[in-house]
Amino acid sequence: MNVSGNEKMSRRTFLDYLMGFGLLAWLGAVLYPIVEYLKVPKQTEAAPSSVVAGLTKDFKPNEGKVFRFGNEPAILIDTPDGKLKAFSAVCTHLQCTVQYRPDMEKIWCACHGGVYDLNGRNIAGPPPRPLQEYKVVVKGDDIIVSKS
Amino acid sequence: MNNESKLMRWFNKRYDLSPFEHFAKEKKVPDFKGSFWYYFGGVSLFLFIVQVVTGILLLMYYQPGAQTAYESVRFIVTKVEFGWLIRSIHSWSANLMILSVFIHMFSVYFTKAFRTPRELTWYSGFLLMSLTLVFGFSGYLLPWNTLSYFATKVGTEIVGVVPVVGIPLMEILRNGSDVTTATLTRFFGLHVAVLPAVFTVVLGIHLLFIQVQGISEPESWKDIPESKKNHIPFFPNFVLRDVLLWLIVLNVLAILAVYFPWELGHKADPFASAPAGIKPEWYFLFMFESLKFLPSKFLGLDGEVVGVMFFGLAGLLWFLIPLWDSRTPKGSRNKIINYVGIAVVLYIIILTTIGAR
Amino acid sequence: MDQKILFGLPLLFILAFASGTQAQKSQTVDKCYSCHRDIGSDEAQAYKNDIHFKAGVTCADCHGGDPTVEDQDAAMSPAKGYIGVPKASAIPQVCGKCHGPSKTELKEKFRLDDVMDDFKASVHGRALSESNDGPQCVSCHGIHNIVSIKDRRSPVYPTNVTKTCAKCHSNPNYMKKFNPGLPVDQYEKYLTSVHGKRNQSGDPKAATCVSCHSNHLIRAVKDPRSPVYPTNIPLTCSKCHSNKMYMAEYHIPTNQYDNYVQSVHGIALLKNSDLSAPACNSCHGNHGAVPPGAASVASVCGTCHQANADLFDKSVHKNAFAKAKLPGCVVCHSNHLVKPPSDKMIGFGSASVCGECHKDNSSDSAASTILVMKTTLDSLTNGQKDASALLAHAEQLGMDVSDASYSLRSVNQSLVESRVQVHAFAIAPVVSAAQPGLKIVADAQKSALGAINEYYFRRKGLGVATLVITLLVVLLYLKIKQIERKSRQ
Fold first, then answer.
1. Cβ contacts of B82 on chain A, cutoff 8 Å
2. Closest Cα to residue B166, out of B157, B174, B175, B178?
3. Which member of B243, B248, C57, C292 has the lowest number of beta carbons within 10 Å of its beta carbon?
4. What 3-state DSSP class applies to B91?
5. Where along chain B do its domains lie?
6. Is B55 within 8 Å of B90 (Cβ atoms)?
7. ipTM given for this complex
8. What are the C-alpha distances in Å from B262 to residues B83, B270, C137, C400?
9. Can you spell out the DSSP letters for C420-442?
10. B 217-276 residues inside an 8 A Cβ radius of C
């Protein structure tokens, strides 16, 4: 009787210990991701957005900026006469990324020297087609670019 | 055991815990072949807790706003350690919670647990279910992706159909005439502040009613003697079973999150045209689908108006079941109540299936 | 203006001569002709030799009136349909009586074509409808002295037609009225062309204005139906230049068109309708068409391939090619059969062009440059391929690698730029253009591998968590059983 009682006791305590261990392991499994989650991420803030190409105050006439639009680069240009224009920045020749050349007042591709005017038309060099133009809407300070 | 009682003694010296102890000891749960359904209340509660925990965690990085909402969720999913897990669990748990709430509601319905004296529990439960749906609807928009944007647009449009109050109500919901980032801010506030507060209060009341009245016994026990009724103690037996189930649910959530990570989709573009096949979340599908089947004109009214009013009325009748149930023959096999219930369940299942195709 | 009267468009051949004598007889009873001849009018004098005179066309056929009446007033009365000198804009109608769509005896007899409708649809017809000054039949074919187009004296005979067109097209004051933007130097340029020189030396086979622009149905160059619309030019030139018999006496190849249609340029223009792709005239000039000399090849190609031409001009090949009289770009890329360039062209492989001049051993100091350029390009292309395969794999596993995929796009830019830099024929420019691309490739590969590792880490982590939870579930189950057993005791 005594022996069996002891056995029962020990089995119970064993189960309890095991339960305690399991509980600890479970707590670890739950807390580990949470603690990791709360650690400072490598990049501390969400990357700037895609649709808003910039703020009006950041742009002067005769200036251009390449920004990410979806999964493709696009270019926003403040033309010399102060109009905002946006185009796909993918050169229609061999898909290089075009840039704005303030000295030429044109869009220029470094790869083969293709040139587009400020309406996106291919005017020199090898590009076969104009750049796709996007719609630019200014809302408050935000310059919002969208596919029209 | 010794430690536990030591702790209890420490508390007992300072506060009189004996009423609680007594309550815990006395509380019993009926044990019969339908008692499996009792667990869905607990599962719903557990999923709510998961939602609170993961929701608070998401709040650490989420930023509402046109230029940050989508980007911050993307950031959470791709850049934050285990962000993908937290976000996926939050999304999956939300869906499982709605499912579990529905199951809980129908089990209460079919076991007639809403009958006197538990009408108030039913009313508060119905309120909780409605809040859960609003939770789901408002949370769906927060990642600001194409699907959620257009689903919200369609969803709020349906509100606008309601005669007289529809348009103003829709504008209040949208914070303007269209779904914009102003809507996002509004939904965010609703989702993380208003709803949790209200939900917690109503949930507290709901649980209090249950504790005060005890768990409802099946109708079939009405005529059998006390001695033949099987009960299990609430504490620790039922609680431990609850915990067991919760653990399994947690594991299911983890498996779902790892193997079927919740997709983020593409960022919403308010200027783009709506993609084909825009659908609301599955729990609204049956209503959405019904509206599609309605003729454009019905009794001189717009088909949609009729549909929306019909669902409003049906919801009200469902909410008021304890009132009209008292006018039907009582008993566990109340044919009217059962037929209505079965019809509703079948209707929801069939239309959801059609809509999901 | 008074001089501009009557008649157009002779397409008549020997038939006209055969019936000449008989026709001349009938003309003698024509009172208009006999009277005007007798008073010694220039028109009547000239008309004697006109092809229409020989065919029996009378004055009244064009001017109206009654040729049978002696009395001048009666013969030339408007009541008899006399119209005098037809207005310029009415001339196509007058000529069109026979040269138009309607059937007449003469039209049948001489098998005349309907050229009036063609003319009306042409740019010239349009100009005429806008202004009475516009060109019409007689502007090119003359009046009263019209001869067969086969006749060397005809203003539209090949050796004369260019001058005939130039009458108006080299006159800026006249052209301004119709198309101020149109150049007026075509004739001048034409005289400098191979076609023009042969034409001047009396060769009727050399191309003239009408060879390319057609005759009556001349359409604007920007009209896609025009034979000189960019996409039609190669075929237009090939009409003569691919004709072995026709070109035999000139001893030049006739395979240009066949080569061109297979070239990048031909495919771009003809298959993809890319109007910015060059047709024959883009390199050879149009009115002043000549083969570009060896020295000017690079500048001709450079009009489009600017960056490459600039690099070439500064490279060692510039002088070396000039000394050897080698035609620049064409040496490696060929002329009409320009194939899409490939990295295989560099190096000493079977498809390489370097090996044509250079040797793959230490005796040639260029060998190492060639090999370094090749390896640089190859490592970039292979790296890009590997990285995108890895990223695709990661994506397939459901991992988000859009940032890396996005940055991998710019590898293409680096690759294109370093391919362009090959035309400097030196190591440094190629390597420095490839450098950013190689870095992006390395980063992309790293993040792809990271994502793939993360994928397996998640699965393993889930495994561990599941194990822990299962253990706990089992223990809990045992505990519940234990408690229930105890409470039942």
1. 33-34, 36-37
2. B157
3. B248
4. helix
5. 27-214+232-265
6. yes
7. 0.80
8. 12, 22, 78, 12
9. HHGGG-SHHHHHHHHHHHHHHHH
10. 232-233, 236-237, 240-241, 243-244, 247-248, 250-251, 254-255, 258, 261, 264
Which DSSP symbol is given to A54? E
Q: Tell me the chain A residues in contact with residue B80 when contact means C-beta distances shorter than 8 Å.
A: 37, 41
The CB-side HSE value for C148 (13 A sphere, CA atoms) comes to 12
Cβ-Cβ contacts under 8 Å, C465 against chain B: 251, 254
Dump strand ranges (E) for A79-141. Answer: 84-88, 98-101, 106-109, 115-116, 122-124, 133-139
- Per-residue pLDDT tens digits for B185-203: 999 999 999 999 999 999 9
Q: How far is CA B223 from its chain centroid? A: 34
Residue-wise pLDDT tens digits, C23-58: 444 555 788 888 888 888 888 888 988 999 888 888
Measured distance CA(C437)–CA(C460) in Å, rounded: 34
Residue B298 pairs in a beta bridge with B301
Cβ-based contacts of A46 with chain B (< 8 Å): 61, 63, 68, 71-72, 74-75, 79
SS3 sequence of C121-168: HCHHHHHHHHCCCCCCHHHHHCCCCCCCCCCCCCCCCHHHHHHHHHHH
- Minimal CA separation from B283 to chain A, in Å: 29
List b or e across C195-205, with b for residues whose CB sees 16 or more CB atoms inside 10 angstroms: bbebbeeeeee
Closest alpha carbon to C355 in C365, C347, C366, C344: C347
Amino acid in the structure at residue C20: G
Q: Contact C440/C407 with Cβ under 8 angstroms?
A: yes
Name beta bridge partners: A87.
A75, A133
C26: Cβ–Cβ under 8 A, 6 or more apart, which residues?
C56, C58
Cα→Cα distances B252→A33, B89, B247, Å: 17, 10, 9
* Chain B nearest CA to A143, separation (Å): 11
Q: CA nearest C264: which of C173, C163, C334?
A: C334
> Which pair of structure tokens corresponds to residue C62?
């064009």
Q: Which residues are registered as beta bridge partners of A133?
A: A87
At residue B341, does pLDDT exceed 80?
Answer: yes
The CATH code that applies to domain B27-214+232-265 is 1.20.810.10
